[in-house]
Amino acid sequence: MNCEIKGGNFPVAICTMEAGDAILCETGAMSWYAGGVKMETNTGGGIGKMLGRALSGESAFMNRYFAERPGILALGACSPGEIREIDVTGRPIVVQKGSFLAMDEGVNLDIFFQKKLQAGLFAGEGFIMNKLSGRGKALIEIDGGAVEYELQPGEKMTIDTGYLVMCDDTVTIDVAMVEGLDNILFGGEGLMNTVVTGPGRIILQTQPLVQFASTIAELIHNKK
């Protein structure tokens, strides 16, 4: 995958494809293509994987774009923010549901189950996330901007719901209750926060789409 990301806050990844190249992506992600690029829709690995993607919040089917001769393929984000190219080099990574955009055929997309019941119930990322493994490149969507950290073993970070977009599978995801009754009632941060513990890389997004939509909905309601 050889992609150039353009468009600023409304990004599109323009991928240059040589003859024989193939890219798998979410249905509806294609913005335009040209040259010898052809499209086919499939289950992306069988009925089991199709159902797994549906459970993790992705589209059940996948589109495969194959270059019979050189061409280009443009893949657009579904909301303002960033498209980030990720190298998958054998160390699996975990991606928030709805953030996967595209991948090389050398990358595997599977479902990832939260190991802790309370994390699945209250962390905001849900019981089921996406796991990318294998070798190749993948594209993920990020709401707003991206901030990246490398956590050391045992190092913790507390994150508001929806801000964690990606992490290495070595990172532990848990939850913690907001301390203090006044903080819970009047702090505006809810009851629970997500807590991640290293070692491993994490990527946070600066403006989760759900939170942005909630803000807009509140403004509209207040103006009625």
Explain what you see.
The structure is a single chain. With 224 residues, this protein is of the alpha+beta class. The protein has a single domain, classed as Mitochondrial biogenesis AIM24 (Double-stranded beta-helix), CATH 3.60.160. Helix content is 16%, strand content 52%. The chain has four helices and 16 strands. It has helices at 47-55, 117-122, 181-186, 209-222, and strands at residues 2-6, 12-17, 22-26, 30-42, 62-76, 81-89, 93-95, 100-104, 107-113, 128-143, 146-151, 156-159, 164-168, 172-177, 192-197, 200-205. The strands form two sheets. Strands 1, 2, 3, 4, 5, 6, 7, 8, 9, 10, 11, 13 and 16 form a 13-stranded antiparallel β-sheet that branches.
Give keywords.
single chain; 224 residues; alpha+beta; Double-stranded beta-helix; 13-stranded antiparallel beta sheet; 16 strands; globular
Entry summary:
The chain is of the alpha+beta class and 224 residues long. It has four helices and 16 strands. The chain has one domain (2-222): Mitochondrial biogenesis AIM24 (Double-stranded beta-helix, 4-Layer Sandwich).
Helix content: 10-25%
What's the gyration radius in Å?
Answer: 19 Å
In DSSP terms (H or I, runs of 4 or more residues), the helix count works out at: 4
Let me know the CATH homologous superfamily: Mitochondrial biogenesis AIM24
CATH architecture: 4-Layer Sandwich
The first-level CATH class is given as Alpha Beta
Task: Indicate the topology.
Blueprint: E1 2-6, E2 12-17, E3 22-26, E4 30-42, H1 47-55, E5 62-76, E6 81-89, E7 93-95, E8 100-104, E9 107-113, H2 117-122, E10 128-143, E11 146-151, E12 156-159, E13 164-168, E14 172-177, H3 181-186, E15 192-197, E16 200-205, H4 209-222
Antiparallel strand pairs: 1-2, 2-5, 3-5, 3-8, 4-5, 6-10, 7-10, 7-13, 8-10, 9-10, 11-16, 12-15, 13-16, 14-15
